[in-house]
Design a protein that fits this description.
2 copies of one chain form a homodimer. Chain A is built from 14 helices and 11 strands. With 443 residues, chain A is of the alpha/beta class. Chain A has a single domain, classed as TIM Barrel (Alpha-Beta Barrel), CATH 3.20.20. The interface between A and B is large, with 74 and 73 residues. Chains A, B: It holds the Pfam family Bac_luciferase.
Amino acid sequence: MSTDRRLRLGAFMRPTSIHGGGWRFPGAWPDANFNFAHYRQAALTLERGRFDALFMADHLAVLNMPIEALKRSATVTSFDPLTLLPALAAVTSKLGLIATASTTYNEPYHVARKFAALDHISGGRAGWNLVTSANPHEAFNFSLEQHVEHGRRYARAREFFDVVTGLWDSWADDAFVRDVESGVYFDPEKLHVLSHKGPHFSVRGPLNIARPIQGWPVIVQAGASDAGRQIAAETAEVVFTNANNLRDAKAYYADVKGRMVLLGRQRDHLKVLPAAFVVVGATVEEARRKKEQLDALVDPASGIASLSVRLGTDASLFDLDGPLPAIPETNDGKGSRQALVDMARERNMTVRQLAQCVGGSYGLLELIGTPQSIADEMERWLMEEGADGFNVMFPYLPGGMDDFVDLVVPELQRRGLFRTEYEGTTLRENLGLPRPPNQFFAA
Amino acid sequence: MSTDRRLRLGAFMRPTSIHGGGWRFPGAWPDANFNFAHYRQAALTLERGRFDALFMADHLAVLNMPIEALKRSATVTSFDPLTLLPALAAVTSKLGLIATASTTYNEPYHVARKFAALDHISGGRAGWNLVTSANPHEAFNFSLEQHVEHGRRYARAREFFDVVTGLWDSWADDAFVRDVESGVYFDPEKLHVLSHKGPHFSVRGPLNIARPIQGWPVIVQAGASDAGRQIAAETAEVVFTNANNLRDAKAYYADVKGRMVLLGRQRDHLKVLPAAFVVVGATVEEARRKKEQLDALVDPASGIASLSVRLGTDASLFDLDGPLPAIPETNDGKGSRQALVDMARERNMTVRQLAQCVGGSYGLLELIGTPQSIADEMERWLMEEGADGFNVMFPYLPGGMDDFVDLVVPELQRRGLFRTEYEGTTLRENLGLPRPPNQFFAA
């Protein structure tokens, strides 16, 4: 157990609340997912709270659920991450900006270029959450008959990563001399043409933008399957995880950091951040009442629909008052489903109970209590190596976020567990991550 | 000839100057193409000058030219339009923001979504410059062996447009009721699933973002070939053109507006904006000296290389002191090449003279003179129906832009040819364009 450990905090912001009833809570912004002025205010609040980063998940389709549930979902209209984050970069100065971009339905040249641009515009605050697209309905928006199979998605993702990082290294950091006198704009010796040819991609390069300020934007992942853990251990610098309890979190933490060591990477060059749904009250009772009030705002149909999306199968066909039956293997994201199945078994939950839990806090780790009790739990996960920090999910905006920033953050700071000022100007500097050397040019 | 005609002004900003020597001019920002703070200042200057829009061209590759010329080009590192413009949206309030996005190497779902997001974030100021990718070297960055053939590019572009506009209409304007009391977020009767199936694309939809504030972002094009003119007449609301003289401009203007009438569209629902390279001086002599000083900063190798890019063939193999030989047909953009060939013939230019012209102001319309003489020429083009305005190209930043905004704009305003205040808050309102009705829902 280390003693000088500090928490890293990300804010999960797409949707701005994963709680299905969050948009209806008294005082909440019903349009928080889709109002730029609200997003700007939230980003400034997070910066005031010294958060490492704002994180945007992504879907390339409207989620597939029955219309009775869908019409109640605040997530159907939202901004895509790579359009919203440049706008937020222009109105913030220290907050990290992490966007999800799929390797399944994008081209690596576009992705490399957009993240490089975001990194330059933000002064080195970009992060890329590299995902494979696990939602089968996304395929239908991209001229495909069916979803890309799990193993092939990961093979494509691995090559995609190599192409993107290769393109980022197209130019040495000091390539652009801009010598007004001689008229030479860059040194040709400091230009590398990638000429990548692989099973999935053939990309010549060079990228038409300078090397990112951070060398590479911070590489983020959320893989929970075996293939996902391995690609994370090889390439990720932040992983967002799902863990309902400290025991599972410690097992994941030890596994991924162990894989890193086998690969010759330093353990602290990857930060493990479990998702945590946080509700703050002056007393534990008050926080629990707030959570109950939120849960009561979720329509039962929405709970079953959310559960169906998470399980990849129609849960309305199950006996709602019986235990969760065995779930057939699908081609979707595996880790998030398994965490739910485990939780239902451990807690002896009926399908109805599980649905309500998923429709509410999505079945993730819940920290519901006072600033002190929440800080206690975060400290325990940090010190026992279940986490390097958390990806915080707020129950609603703006109040749920203000509570965390105004009440929990000062308690964490008082304990010496969280920064009072940003350490640097880039996301890497704040996370304590090294700047990658250019693979084609010596420093 | 109409009497109440007003000019529309766009600012061509990628590159920030098309003049090859602009970055070396005394007082210029050598890194203007690639410095967000400079872009922000430029956008604010344009807004002060009441410009309709800032326009960003795009390339999906570093331009292919010999390294001796390439190393002198300020264009090799720049921002991609759809990452820069959201950031500029956050720091401006009235200026239109037009981004180029290729229909050749993108997916329509991504393009529809990003422009919808830009339109919402900017409060209705987005425009989409719909292009086909004419640079053969772009194919190599997108896993293709060779460039997509001209006719096929246009067929794909036409279908791409139908898919994007269909996706923009996924939701009625009033679909999102966000009824906190009942928990209903949207009215299912106001959701349309596109289910497009065509020769190039199969896209189900719906788009996961609300209908753009403008209904559709303003549709911009630059087609000069017959296929390009036809798609412009069918779909465009702004066209950027190249014309070296008023006679050609009038012919183009009459042709495209005539095609519109045949298609049942109103002539004033499309604005024709020729590119104009503008250098302002206190006297015509001073402006000409400034232009000579700029031209002297272009290396001869760069001129030949720029000419080769424009012609789609290696001009260094020609007799530099002879006339331009016949240029073989290629698969590249046709209109811009033909304008050059015509100019060389009309002016009896040698290859060397043509190269210097292209390396300087790219062989476009040049307005070099006093605020009065420039306003005279703009007025003439406007009144004789050669143009509805101009896409202004500045010789360098910030001085070349400041000169235009501080000296030419007031002269145009004094003559009643240009607005003194923005007419509305959206780009459509400022351009005087109608808001498209939703094709799937009555207003």
